[in-house]
């Protein structure tokens, strides 16, 4: 895949902050009768709320309330369950027939048809529409014509999409991809009403979807009000009357408001408050695993770091990091030391294999020194870890990581942090291949598949392969995994691909990230899904 600009990746905690107009609890009673309205911390979306143009968490929260696609990921298990899909069939893992359920409508009364999906996907893929999630359609035949790497599109629609009737369309992929149906819970694949195309500007001002909530109003920089849609067709109807998403630019302010009862819910506990959160909130404190992994990526395009001989140095640095101590002292156990390149939320059936990285991801000081020496030592005698300084408490853990490396190498100047002022500048430097050493990275899954943790990050030329790693054996194993008709056979091949990463260590797994949050006693039935986002429709509001 190509062309990804991911605001989601590696942002760490999303810092959001209260506007003066946001005060007073949930904005309505309820007694769990589906009428009460709750208030929740939020941040203005980076982009307009088009499904194929939203690739960051805050906009994604809204899409998950306003839209439903062919599949939806179970909030507890992560399983991709049919939502609008009645069945998705294939005989060869490359050509699919999709049949949708009858009777679904958008909140403006328009029916949801096969054409609603095909039109949305064609729009999302077309280069002229500049959609940030266009690369999700890169598996479909004809993508290279509607979204060429250079020049103008030579086609407006994907040749691999064909509408058969109101409830059926076919999809031809450009490679075998047995788990492709499981990716279809991602918001980029949502259907769009005709109103989106007839009055695009009007739709952007007040998006219309087919989910359990409707957008009532949006005051940028202040709040978005969503209300329960009483005619929603799906099985996951809202158990509350609506959600007021309040804009914050400082998560400390949100936490203070939560404690004061002026805010019902926050899903971003400040790092400085993690040690107090359980005492402050009791059983209303949420700390649960999420599909997020934090890593250090090496610039494999830099000959000082990217040679095969330097693999020993990269492995040695991994073994010089005391993950257990850092996650305990810096993150108050809201992170777990990583032992592979995926996430425990996948579970064994989904591809997570604890300990797959082996000794290369364990704290082994003597072996670390040995490997670094055998690999020729640190380039120039020093390693610089680059990170953005404007979001998350990255300085603290980078300093702790470097202290661990320095202690192992018995040189207090061997590892130093290199802060970059803003996330935008940081990403620009990464895109321009200006990194001179390992840099902070990470991944929040788009969908709960092992494929999503590996192919976008490490496949040659992949959309989010920021270190420009390339290994033919890794690519071959990924291709073979995608072609496997049985999930467990595919999982095994993907795990074999990870073993190539153990040998090359182009990216050091650091820790798996938990989602954290807290809520007032007005609410009940509160949980985060596997993407670390509140399951808003399940929340009940008391008096």
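Q: What amino acid sequence fits the structure above?
A:
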């Amino acid at each position: 895949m190509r062309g990804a600009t991911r605001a989601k990746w590696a942002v760490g905690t999303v810092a959001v902050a209260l506007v003066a107009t946001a005060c007073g609890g949930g904005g309505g009673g309820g007694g769990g009768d589906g009428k009460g309205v709750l208030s929740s911390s939020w941040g203005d979306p980076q982009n307009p709320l088009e499904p194929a143009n939203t690739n960051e968490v805050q906009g994604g929260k809204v899409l998950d309330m306003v839209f439903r696609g062919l599949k939806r990921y179970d909030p507890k298990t992560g399983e991709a369950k049919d939502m609008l899909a009645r069945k998705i069939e294939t005989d060869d893992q490359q050509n699919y027939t999709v049949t949708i359920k009858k009777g679904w409508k958008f909140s403006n009364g328009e029916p949801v048809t096969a054409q609603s999906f095909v039109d949305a996907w064609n729009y999302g893929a077309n280069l002229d529409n500049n959609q940030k999630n266009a690369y999700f359609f890169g598996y479909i035949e004809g993508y290279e014509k509607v979204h060429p790497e250079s020049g103008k599109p030579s086609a407006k629609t994907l040749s691999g999409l064909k509408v058969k009737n109101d409830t059926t369309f076919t999809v031809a992929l450009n490679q075998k991809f047995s788990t492709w149906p499981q990716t279809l819970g991602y918001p980029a694949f949502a259907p769009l009403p005709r109103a989106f195309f007839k009055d695009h500007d009007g739709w952007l001002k007040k998006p219309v979807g087919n989910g359990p909530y409707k957008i009532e109003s949006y005051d940028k920089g202040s709040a978005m009000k969503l209300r329960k849609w009483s005619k929603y067709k799906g099985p996951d109807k809202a158990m509350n009357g609506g959600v007021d998403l309040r804009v914050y630019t400082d998560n400390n302010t949100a936490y203070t408001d939560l404690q004061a009862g002026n805010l019902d819910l926050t899903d971003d506990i400040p790092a400085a408050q993690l040690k107090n959160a359980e005492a402050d909130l009791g059983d209303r404190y949420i700390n649960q695993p999420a599909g997020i992994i934090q890593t250090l990526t090496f610039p494999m395009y830099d000959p000082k770091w990217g040679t095969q001989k330097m693999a020993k140095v990269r492995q040695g640095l991994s073994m010089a990091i005391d993950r257990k101590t850092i996650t305990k002292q810096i993150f108050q156990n809201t992170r777990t030391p990583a032992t592979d390149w995926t996430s425990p939320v996948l579970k064994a059936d989904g591809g997570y294999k604890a300990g797959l990285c082996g000794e290369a991801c364990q704290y082994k000081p003597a072996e670390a020194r040995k490997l670094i020496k055998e690999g020729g030592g640190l380039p120039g005698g020093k390693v610089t870890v680059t990170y953005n300084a404007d979001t998350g408490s990255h300085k603290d853990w980078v300093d702790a990581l470097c202290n661990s490396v320095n202690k192992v190498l018995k040189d207090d100047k061997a590892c130093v942090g290199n802060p970059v002022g803003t996330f935008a500048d940081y990403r620009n430097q990464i895109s321009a291949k200006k990194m001179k050493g390992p840099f902070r990275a990470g991944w929040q899954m788009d969908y709960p598949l092992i494929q999503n943790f590996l192919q976008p990050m490490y496949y040659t030329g992949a959309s989010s392969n920021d270190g420009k790693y390339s290994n033919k054996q890794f690519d071959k194993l990924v291709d073979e995994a995608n072609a496997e008709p049985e999930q467990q056979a595919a999982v095994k091949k993907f795990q074999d691909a990870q073993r190539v990463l153990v040998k090359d260590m182009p990216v050091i797994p650091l820790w798996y990230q938990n989602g954290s949050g807290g809520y007032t006693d007005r609410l009940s039935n509160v949980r985060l899904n596997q993407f670390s986002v509140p399951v808003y429709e399940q929340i009940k509001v008391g008096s």
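Q: And what stands out in the fold?
A: The chain has 17 helices and 19 strands.
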